[in-house]
Amino acid sequence: MANIKSAKKRISVINKKTQVNRRIKNNLKAVLKNFDKALASGDLGLAKEKLVLAEKKLMKAGAKGTMHKNTASRKVSRLTKAYNKAVEAAKAE
User: What is the domain extent for residue 61?
Assistant: First the structure.
């Protein structure tokens, strides 16, 4: 256990930041699952709404430092690619 006052403070600050980051990441996981479910069910309108929400949440997480900006951008790109693939498959049918 830390003896120095500044080290004790850093521990408490890190714990608070960890809680915030954990809450944000759990929310992100839920949003991404909802997008995947909408895409799997074939409801492209709902999937588009979920994609917009997921993009917003991912970019915010990247901007706030919860995840790296490039990670957020990569995830958005992959989600968009999956959505576009589903739209093309629906048009082909």
Answer: 19-92
